[in-house]
Amino acid sequence: MLRRVREWQRRRVLARHRIDDVAWAAVVERVPFLADLSEQERARLKDWTALFLHQKQIHGAGGYEVDEGTRLVIAAQACLLILNLDLDYYRDWVEVIVYPDEFVPQREYVDEAGVVHVVREPLAGESWLQGPVILSAADVDPAWHEGPLNVVIHEFAHKLDMLNGDANGMPPLHPDMEPEAWKKAFEQAYHDLRRRAERGLPTPIDAYGAESPGEFFAVASEAFFQAPHTLLAAYPAVYEQMRQFYRQDPAARSRAHG
């Protein structure tokens, strides 16, 4: 009964808040890998994007005003992760904050000697547990960057990871998935990436993934959607686990489109 009510509510929202076809075509142009989606997938993504924008607030900070095109680009990439899941994966928070460029939050930590340190480090994105997603407007368009770098996918992958609490690289798996298979695949790949990064060797995905298991999951998610063949070649077991979790196969999708 609750599911039917939810679907009825969503249909009502979509009837009132459809995305203009011209505006949607501009989104697909700004996010090139969306072209690999089938017509049916793009239609579903368009609906998810409209529902996302109905539920979430996207606004600027630091003097930045978010235009409609940027709002759509952010929401579409966020919804790509849940294309075959559900919008409820983004529950319990409502806000996306967009700065014009990198922002510099201030953090404090206490070292082993009990000394308090204050750190200010520029960031392009950040996700808070049950809080906002924070993004840099200069980094939300994937076409502006070389390689599989995508701050929107990265931060929204953290949001999925945080459904189990802190971002630790272990999002809530589906009942038909095996946690031990996930752990084995990710631990082996994470340690390989750390070894390569520590030795100054080339890394198949962004070396930032070597920072922690949570960052590895987010970086691997970037590659999964934006450079799937790279991830599949480097870490096939990780790719397979992500294929099961996201219920998508971007590598097969891009081959079919090509």
From TrEMBL:
Any one GO cellular component localisation term in the record: cytosol
Pfam families noted in UniProt: Peptidase_M90 (PF06167)
GO molecular function, one term: aminopeptidase activity
Segments crossing the lipid bilayer: none
Entries under InterPro entries matching the protein: MetalloPept_cat_dom_sf, MtfA_fam, MtfA_N
Gene3D superfamilies tied to this protein: Collagenase (Catalytic Domain), Glucose-regulated metallo-peptidase M90, N-terminal domain
The protein's name in its UniProt record: Zinc-dependent peptidase
Organism of provenance: Pelomicrobium methylotrophicum
